[in-house]
Write a sequence for this structure.
């Protein structure tokens, strides 16, 4: 055996460490899809591990602030340590993406939003508002439902259907006469979003406001979407223009982030 070749024990130890990280990551992903918490039994069933193993990993993650106890029945949810990491990731995303949002807003002469998935809501982290007499503007930090917004649908579409069902209530809240209130109907629409890369809000969250959105692949693993909200009076007939411009911007953003 060469002098620099690791002994079998060292190799096995390294492999065991990687396995622990993989299992811990699986637990964190399960909790990310359950903003209200998940019990040890539920986690064990989800990740396919013995409850004792999950309990040991959960305790280690709790010590690091990556998970927090909810209650005896609800179990655990993501902790403040991960929230701090997410905050840093959001700041980095905004710094990298903002110039492209400005460029897209200039091309379309419309407001452009950047949003991320946060539990069972979508949260705005950046916005370029286009001055218009009639404009669709929200605010950074504001959260919206997933099922009735273009950015929410775009973010749901990057998840598997079982995770989507876990995030959404059995009956979806109606905000306007156009809101989708059936999970099955929404899941069918998400298949179209996955195929085209574009999600649409046709006055489903607010009357008079439409939007098109697309999910962006980021190296930090934070589900992210770019959206163009438009007053309904300027939206009809521009869907193709808006969609093409948004997909082009997404490709540019993903190249920037990958670099």
């Amino acid at each position: 055996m060469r002098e620099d070749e690791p002994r079998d024990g060292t190799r096995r130890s390294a492999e065991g460490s990687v396995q622990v990280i993989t299992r811990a990551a699986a637990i964190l992903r399960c909790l990310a899809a359950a903003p209200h918490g998940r019990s040890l039994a539920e986690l064990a069933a989800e990740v396919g591990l013995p409850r004792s193993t999950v309990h040991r990993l959960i305790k280690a993650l709790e010590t690091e602030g990556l998970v927090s106890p909810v209650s005896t029945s609800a179990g655990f949810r993501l902790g403040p340590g991960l929230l701090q990491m997410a905050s840093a990731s959001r700041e980095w995303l905004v710094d990298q993406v903002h110039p492209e949002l400005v460029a897209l807003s200039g091309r379309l002469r419309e407001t452009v939003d950047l949003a991320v998935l946060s539990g069972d809501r979508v949260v705005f982290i950046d916005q370029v508002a286009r001055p218009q007499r009639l404009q669709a503007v929200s605010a950074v930090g504001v959260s919206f439902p997933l099922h009735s917004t273009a950015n929410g649908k775009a973010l749901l579409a990057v998840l598997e259907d079982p995770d989507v069902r876990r995030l959404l209530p059995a009956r979806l809240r109606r905000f306007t006469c156009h809101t989708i209130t059936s999970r099955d109907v929404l899941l069918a629409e998400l298949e179209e979003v996955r195929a085209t890369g574009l999600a649409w809000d046709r006055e489903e969250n607010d009357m008079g406001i439409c939007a098109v959105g697309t999910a962006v692949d980021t190296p930090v693993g934070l589900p992210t979407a770019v959206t163009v909200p438009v007053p309904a009076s300027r939206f009809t007939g521009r869907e193709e223009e808006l969609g093409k411009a948004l997909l082009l911007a997404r490709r540019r953003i993903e190249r920037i982030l990958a670099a």
